[in-house]
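Posting this for the archive.
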Amino acid sequence: MQVVCGVDWVGGESGYLKLIDQTKLPHKLVYINCTTVGQVADAIRNLQVRGAPAIGVAAAFGAYLGIRNHRLTQIDTDYKNFYKRFLYIYDVLLSTRPTAVNLKWALERIKQKVQEAQWFNSSKVKTEIYQESLKILKKDREVCHKIGLVGAKLIKNNYTILTHCNAGLLATAGNGTALSVLYQAKKEGKKFSVFATETRPLLQGARLTVWELQKNKIPVTLICDNMVGSLMECGVRGADCGMVRRRKIDLVIVGADRIAKNGDTANKIGTYQIAVLAKEHKIPFYIAAPLSTFSAKGGSASGGDIPIEYRSPDEVTHINHTLIAPRNTRVYNPAFDVTPVKYISGFITERGIISPMSITRHF
């Protein structure tokens, strides 16, 4: 791989969280070195780090950074203050992005360690939290690799695959989820090409997915979001002679930010309409996601229970800080939509492909 992952930890317990600033891509490759919980929270909130798995990893280390410099002398007398401090850190990080379930999943794992910490001395507490954060990062890398191995079996030679938003190296601590499938297929010598949607309003497909796939030498063609139906129906027009070449989409693979217990899936806004179009044109539509993205006990029962993040109107009215709509335009800007499970062909996970019909037996 020519592109490093979007989130990493450097330098042991005294180190820092290293992020690719995704708001600067594709024009500049800029790294952010976070040493405080505030820096991590800002990076998540401002989409400098994004993608459900990457957010989870970042949040775990953000919690560690938040307590690393907390002075804790005698755990038996200071634990209450320590735990109060952690709950504040927990709330700060949890409030940054409400939809991606990996954020809370990772923070809950850290919280479990903190709740056990009253039995440890102060240095042991911080080491335990650091080690748990490191396990989350390493596990994400392992899971991404396994998702790639599982999903690559779906790709045949000369396939054309459609993906939406960015679910690759930049969105995880490993090879990605949806794009990990592509990287593994390429490693296995399969020949295929990719269509990537621009993914309005923040253009994660145009800015991130196309950049990432180009860097890794996977053939990719950029399309506007509203071209998907036409592409599935008619193929693409050859620029050389003006003739229409029948080249429909063979497979759709996208990532996920949260999967409800019944299989309804929240992903980047625009995913739902792609799934409906795929169903109409009899094109398989797969979600690639780690098991941590599925709602656990007490989580979302169905799509209606998934909280949807609404973002600034400026993201719609401006492109690269240039106003493209009349001033004072009313804007509706949900960051995610929910695809009902009936439109999903299967879930590509580290434990294999889960059928929508059997999902309730797994969770």
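The chain has a mean pLDDT of 91. DSSP finds eleven helices and 17 strands in the chain.
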